[in-house]
Amino acid sequence: MFAETVGTGDAGELSITTGKLMVSDGARVSASTFGEGNGGNLTVDADSTVQVIGTSADGQFASRLFAQADRGSKGNAGNLSITTGQLIVCDGAVVSALTFGEGNAGNLTVDADSTVQVIGTKSDGQFPSGLFTTTFGTGNGGELNITTGELIVSDGAQVGAGTFGEGNSGNLTVDADSRVQVIGTSASGRIVSGLFTVTEGTGNAGELSINTGKLMVSDGADVSAATFGIGNGGNLTVDASSTVQVIGTSANGEFSSLLTTQTEGTGKAGNLKITTGELMVSDGAQVSTDTFGIGNGGNLTVDASSTVQLIGRSADDQSPSGLFAQVNRGATGNAGNLNITTGQLMVSDGARVSTKSFEQDSSAGTVEINANSIFLNNDGRITAETAAGDDSNIILYSRDIRLLNRSLIITEARNTTTGGNIVIDTDTLVGLGNSDINANADKGQGGSVTIKAQGIFGLEFRDRPTPDNDITATSKRGPSFSGDVEINISQLDPTSGLTELPASPVDAEAILANDLCGFENNRIAGGSSFFITGKGGLPPTPEDPVINAHRTVGWRTRPGLASSRKPLQQPPLAFGHESRSVTQPQPPQEKKVIIEALGWVTAKDGTIILTAHPFRGTPVDQILPHLDCHSGGGSRE
After folding, report:
1. Among 176-180, 188-192, 366-370, 497-501, which stretch is predicted with the lowest mean pLDDT?
2. Cα 220 → chain centroid
3. What whole-number distance in Å separates Cα of residue 184 and Cα of residue 193?
4. Cβ neighbours, 10 Å, residue 535
5. In the chain, where are the structural domains located?
6. Which of 317, 384, 371 is nearest to 343 (CA)?
7. 3-state secondary structure of 481
8. Which residues are listed as membrane-spanning (predicted)?
9. So what's the pLDDT on residue 539?
10. Taking residues 386-397, what's their average pLDDT?
11. DSSP per residue over 493-526, as a string?
């Protein structure tokens, strides 16, 4: 199905409206230009699904849905727009907007309510299934925009915007409400699954932006913005509201899972920025900004509100997991800076946070970390290593920093380069298990270590490395080339947080002056209570044992308080006479008044008797834990 032009006129529009569209077995749906005229737009609106599947039987022709400006053309390619519930592109099929001539490529826009799945390669494993906007000529590449609930790219499939000529690449933008998954490699292990913006020509690569709830890159897959030519690489921006996970390597161990910007040419690499709740990089996967050529590497910025977890190495132990801004071997460009802002940073089991330069003509950047806590364990490392320049610095701001089991914070300068600087501002700094903080140099001047803390535990300044927990700034040239170590321990006020006690002690008699057991209508009113809290479990002196002062106290009737009132007697009744009740007059009785106990005395038999007056005699050994009132009065035992 085609809408094409081979002359000066423009191609017409091609619109498809259906419930389900399937393009398979090498079939093609196209809107193209082969001449000076512009290509038409290709629009697909399918309520249910769009499926583009496979190749011809001989494998020569991929099933395709495309809009392009062909070789020799001067016109611009049209746009390709797909609106559907689900888009599936698999087994070597392609959906694309391309230009091979002077004209610009069109835009490729996908809006799929449910999912976009791009899966696999051709049967021979040579070409990936994919969504592409690409320029091979002087024209610019188009924009590639994907809006969906879930994007899955797997088994060697790819989604990319690139330039292989003089034109600039378009941008790749993914907006997936739920998640984006980029998984694995082709069956042969030679083609990695990926999302890309790339330039291999003189044009610049486009921006790669991912907005989603969760991003997962695993099993050797790659999400990258790269330049392999003169043009500059694009920026890579990830905004994942929940998590970003970059995990593992390919099945054959050849490819690490990557989230990266890089340059292998003269162009500069773009910057990489990740904003998320939680970032996890594990099992040999890497998040990096790299230069393999003359161009400089980009900056790597991570803003994770909850945690950043960097864990372990690859199965063959060759690739550490981590965050990297580095200059690789053979390159001459400078590395970018690495900045992390998070609640908690954990680096463990050989993982790294690193800016590094391997070559003498290039320098490493600065590592700066702002985190509530920084935890390094089992050879976890924060490093800044350089072979040139004096900018390999580490700056840490954290309330709690812990280094355990051979973990390191290190700036290392090779050749005659001056060692880098380490600045640490923290509340507590702990180093155990041969963990070190080093600002060392090879043949140059040692660096400097500046630490401001309220407490340092385990770590000590030493003039040379030892098997203990060291803070050093040394040079292999000798002690005279050592750097500076400055440690500032904040002076704490030992009285801070204490409550000032009143000058006057508690007046027990004043407390008991209130009528706790007011007696009304022959009953105690109010139901008041009185507690003695004691010493809070402390013995009288440091030499005395803690004595259990618990006693069982029973109430007894106080003599003379029993009622003297007798029941009324009624005279016998005579049969035949009117019955009459006669009340005998009673003498007035003295009303008994019950008051609260204000003291006690000890009888000879050890019985404690409550008294109505404060006791002024010899004090008793143990103070009773509780006093109360009883309508009948009484004593305690």
Report:
1. 497-501
2. 23
3. 6
4. 10
5. 1-191, 197-362
6. 371
7. helix
8. none
9. 63
10. 80
11. -TTTTPPPPPSSPP-HHHHHTS-TT-EETTEE-S
